[in-house]
Write a structure and sequence with these properties.
The structure is a single chain. 32% of the residues lie in helices and 32% in strands. The chain is of the alpha/beta class. It has a single domain, classed as Glutaredoxin. Strands 5-4-3-8-9 form a 5-stranded mixed sheet. A two-stranded antiparallel ribbon has the order 1-2. A two-stranded antiparallel ribbon has the order 6-7. Strand 6 and strand 7 form a beta hairpin. Helix 1 packs parallel to helix 4.
Length: 143
């Protein structure tokens, strides 16, 4: 399974692994407060992730064009994948029923996966709270 990035280039997740692996974070929507904070935190720590041999990749159901705008607006330099059909979200189990203000709908539950260089999931962070999440993931890579 592959997905297009912000430029429309198709990627298999295994092609995005760094020397030691990757951090794949699934987030609900570009340019929303929580998603912006989470993305900016990963961007700020990107050199540290890369120094440890890990790439960082964001995945949402937004379009490639939306991802391009988000990257430019926020100065993001890592890859954002567009899972418009939610196939990858469903495969990872993050496309779930959500409730907000009494309404029930399907959406992405904010979740982060650390994948090792062999492509195996090494750690899962379910139902992520944005505050200091990127720092916690980085600290766990050092543990």
């Amino acid at each position: 399974m592959s997905l297009p990035d912000q430029d429309g280039k198709e990627w298999a997740l295994t092609d995005l692994l760094g020397e030691k692996g990757a951090v794949f974070y699934f987030y609900p929507k570009d340019n929303t407060p929580g998603c912006t904070t989470e993305s900016m935190d990963f961007q700020a720590l990107l050199p540290e992730f890369e120094k440890r041999g890990y790439s960082v990749v964001g995945i949402s159901k937004d379009s490639s064009k939306s991802h391009t705008n988000f990257r430019v607006k926020k100065g993001l330099t890592f890859t954002l994948l567009a899972d418009v059909e939610t196939d990858m979200c469903q495969a990872f189990g993050v496309w779930q029923e959500k409730k907000n203000y009494g309404k029930t709908y399907m959406g992405i539950v904010r979740t982060t996966f650390v994948v090792d260089a062999a492509g195996k999931v090494a750690k899962v962070y379910p139902k992520v709270k944005v505050k200091e999440h990127a720092q916690a993931v980085l600290a766990d890579l050092d543990a």
